[in-house]
Every structure is written in structure tokens, then in C-alpha cells.
Design a protein that fits this description.
2 domains, 5-stranded antiparallel β-sheet, single chain, Aminoglycoside 3'-phosphotransferase, Chain: A, domain 2, Phosphotransferase, transferase activity
């Protein structure tokens, strides 16, 4: 028997195969994303080498964009957070342990680089999709010129951060309750980028928010694990996380607006206030970021 599974925000489709007995498998169907499939296989192998728990690959047909995978289950960390079945503490620390294991094996030539051009392209999703579509507002040329200058200052700050392997969506929805914990999925877009990207994604989740006190507790735990494992961090980690958050959260707002207005998935914009709350904190991290706050204040 074949059961459709809830997919991610991308074009990939997933199916659960119910086999004889209680055994199951997962099929990833990405017929127009052969390079994404190749990336999935490469990154998965790197994560296995790091000791992370990722789905075992049973069969591959790159021509058709099909990968047959181990089924790690369907209960994500997010499901547990929303249900209140158990404290997030154990889960977040397990995720942070896995993250440090992943970062410690980073190699300069191991994956594609998340460079300034890609970060800038992502930043521009905010005015191009959120402002123009969600807010139905067309900024003038002067606004865009100031936006460009603010983006350049942000990218200069991010260029100073140590580099490491980056999952790119290391958040509760992509971490599964499994043994060992966590099961890690949706890693095909992994790259080399700022070391703070994944810890930021985890602690300022797209669909769940921690208190600032809990966030700081987990950030301290992460810093201790990095120190013990030899992962280099920025000297002011909280500030560096804030700076990274500005880039990611403008990007996510743009992507969520695109999912709504281009792809017909309006529910993603329900979480937009969460990202503006994050940005309100993050834009205070450095005087160079104040221009973004001014630009936001001028929008509807």
C-alpha cells in the first residue's frame, strides 16, 4: 500500500510504502530535481560520517528522480512541542549535540558555499514577494537603494563569521523522534556558510518560539559543546546569531509570501508575525542594521 505523506515547502513529494508485516519505506519523488537528488545522497553520506542519524538509502533511480529510503517515523520535534507530551529540553539538547557533530567535520571544499550573492538573492525575496504581494505595496527607487545599502552592510557582518557545514533548515519540523535521536531529514540544500545559521534556525524556529531565557540557556549549551569539540564560534555569539537571523528571517518572509501567492499555500503566512517579532529583536544587534528598521517603518 502507498500513502502520500505531508511534504515540505518544496516541489518534492513523499510516499510511505506499507510492506509485509509492519515494515515501511519512504519514497522521495523529485523527477525534475536530479541535482537535488544527487545533493541529498552526498550530504546524507557526510552526515553518516559525522555520526548523525539520517535515513538509510535502499535504492536510487536518478533518471526518474526516485530514492527509496528508510522510514524514520512521522513524529517530529514540532509535533512533540505542540502536543506538550514532553519537555523540549531533552530534544533540543539532542539536536544541538547532533549539530556540533555535523559542524566539526566541516571541510572547505566539502559542499557548495552559501556566498554573499546567494544571501543577497534571498534577502531580495522580502521586497519582491512579501512587500509587493502580501503588503501590496510598491516601494520607490529611493527605498530600494537604501535597501541595497542595508543589505551590503549586513553581508559584510556575516562575512566575518567562521564557516561550517550548514543544514539550511535545521528546525523542529525536520528533526524526528527516533532512536538514536534525532532523525535528521530534508538536508539536500546543505552548504558551507556562517556557523550560526543552523543554531539560529533551531532556536528561532519557523513554527515554534522559545522564551528568550530558554533560548539563551540552549545557546550557552551549544557554545559549551562547540568549545569541547573544537568548533570555532564568533567572539560575541548572541550578537552573531542576531545578525544571521536578519538574513534568514527576511528570506523566510519572502519565501512564505511566494508560497502563498505563487504556489497557492496561504497557511504559511499565518506565521509571518513570528518573524517580525524575531526581526524586531535582531535589528538591535548592531548599529549597521538600524537602516532595516527604518525601512520597515516606512512600509504599510
Amino acid at each position: 500500500m502507498i500513502q502520500p505523506m505531508t511534504g515540505d515547502a518544496g516541489a518534492r513529494r513523499y510516499y510511505r510504502l506499507l510492506m509485509s508485516g509492519q515494515e515501511t519505506r519512504v519514497v522521495m519523488d523529485a523527477p525534475d530535481q536530479i541535482e537535488s537528488c544527487r545533493a541529498y545522497l552526498k550530504v546524507g553520506q557526510l552526515m553518516i560520517e559525522a555520526g548523525l542519524h539520517v535515513p538509510q538509502v535502499y535504492a536510487v533511480d536518478l533518471r526518474k528522480g526516485l530514492i527509496l529510503l528508510e522510514d524514520l517515523g512521522s513524529k517530529s520535534f514540532l509535533d512533540v512541542f505542540l502536543s506538550g507530551d514532553r519537555s523540549p529540553d531533552e530534544l533540543i539538547k539532542a539536536a544541538l549535540n547532533a549539530l556540533v557533530q555535523w559542524q566539526v567535520i566541516s571541510q572547505p571544499e566539502g559542499l557548495e558555499v552559501f556566498d554573499a550573492a546567494k544571501m543577497r538573492s534571498e534577502l531580495d525575496l522580502f521586497p519582491n514577494w512579501y512587500v509587493r504581494h502580501a503588503q501590496q505595496h510598491e516601494p520607490n527607487d529611493a527605498w530600494f537603494e537604501r535597501w541595497s545599502m542595508a543589505c551590503n552592510k549586513l553581508l559584510e557582518l556575516l562575512a566575518k563569521q567562521p564557516q561550517a557545514y550548514v543544514h539550511r533548515d535545521f528546525m523542529s519540523r525536520n528533526l524526528l523522534i527516533s532512536e538514536p535521536m534525532p532523525g535528521v531529514i530534508d538536508f539536500q540544500d546543505a552548504c558551507i556558510g556562517p556557523v550560526t545559521y543552523d543554531v539560529l534556525s533551531l532556536l528561532r524556529d519557523a513554527f515554534w518560539s522559545f522564551s528568550e531565557a530558554d533560548e539563551q540557556t540552549y545557546l550557552d549549551y551549544y557554545a559549551q559543546r562547540c568549545a569541547s569539540m573544537g568548533v570555532t564560534l564568533p567572539p560575541n555569539l548572541p550578537q552573531a546569531v542576531d545578525v544571521m537571523g536578519v538574513q534568514r528571517h527576511f528570506k523566510v518572509l519572502g519565501i512564505f509570501a511566494r508560497l502563498c501567492y505563487r504556489d497557492g499555500k496561504p497557511h504559511y503566512l499565518d506565521d509571518a508575525p513570528r518573524f517580525f517579532n524575531y526581526l524586531n529583536r535582531e535589528l538591535q544587534a548592531d548599529p549597521a542594521l538600524e537602516a532595516f528598521a527604518e525601512l520597515l517603518a516606512e512600509l504599510p
